[in-house]
Amino acid sequence: MDENQTERVKEFALAGFSENSSIEAGLFLLFLFFYVSTWVGNVLIMVTVASDNYLNSSPMYFLLGNLSFLDLCYSTVTTPKLLADFLDNKKLIPYNQCIVQLFFLHFVGAAEMFLLTVMAYDRYVAICRPLHYTTVMSRGLCCVLVAASWMGGFVHSTVQTILTIRLPFCGPNQVDNFFCDVPPVIKLACADTFVIELLMVSNSGLISTSSFVVLICSYTTILVKIRSKEGRRKALSTCASHLMVVTLFFGPCIFIYARPFSTFSVDKMVSVLYNVITPMLNPLIYTLRNKEVKSAMRKLWDRSRLWKK
Fold first, then answer.
1. Which of the four, 61, 198, 257, 268, has the lowest number of CB atoms within 10 Å?
2. Which PROSITE patterns is this protein grouped with (predicted)?
């Protein structure tokens, strides 16, 4: 075999959104706004939950604070590199950094999927077993469930990463996305990847699809168990924000991972949705529909003004 064919790829070139530098500069400002908004919104939620005694003692808001932390981590895996690449025509990423990015993308992403499932269980207990809610959803159980979500994400990502790094990469090195992910990266392997693709699709696709089905079944059960129209209306109002988050996060993930690794022209835009937009929207979805969070934020604002005086 030719030496050039056996030499391992040392860096990958990420795909950009445009070859026009003016457009890329405009996109840099737009995505910088998205990233700053993501940080401001999610940090505000975490600080609000931590500083308010009622929110801090509530299992629902404890889980919400953890979701905000995961959203921060998730957007930080890809967005800083994306912002840097808007100002760099080459858009190169070393092989090792690519694998690290891939690992943390699936680590945090899977942990968020599991946490959203835990939050659905929390809403089920709160609505269907309100008298036992504080007993069942104790702080100890919440911590265990959050830790289990992180551990599940770690195991999932470790499997994905090991399967990827075992593949030989000897060229080409053009990743058809703005970050390193399993589907576009393994397409570049100079080996038969059919079995690996099936394993990875069954892994990522199964997690996203099964978690989404469990979530939908959970909310359906809640609505079925509540007899009165008024009760259903309140339950739907309570769960509406969670349903919006679930749809925004799981829809694109299922589209990307629960199918064979064929390329569609919309894949890059779908990736933007769940990597950049959804972590920014989550704080807005929860705060705009939640009177308790908005009230706690106003109290926090009033206290901060008093401290300044």
1. 198
2. G_PROTEIN_RECEP_F1_1 (PS00237), G_PROTEIN_RECEP_F1_2 (PS50262)
Overall pTM > 0.85 = yes
Q: What is the residue type of 61?
A: Y
| Residue 3 binned pLDDT confidence (cut-offs 50, 70, 90) | very low
Residue count of the chain: 309
Closest CA to 79 of 234, 274, 246: 274
> In angstroms, rounded to a whole number, what is the distance separating the alpha carbons of residues 10 and 221?
51
Sign of CA dihedral 188, 194, 198, 199: negative
For 211-224, give the secondary structure using H, E and C. HHHHHHHHHHHHHH
Least confident span in 213-217, 246-250, 303-307: 303-307
Output the pLDDT for position 260: 67
Q: How far is CA 68 from CA 52, 91, 100, 142, 282, in A?
A: 16, 29, 22, 15, 8
**β-pairing verdict for 92-94 and 11-14:** antiparallel
What is 3-308's CATH topology? Rhopdopsin 7-helix transmembrane proteins (1.20.1070)
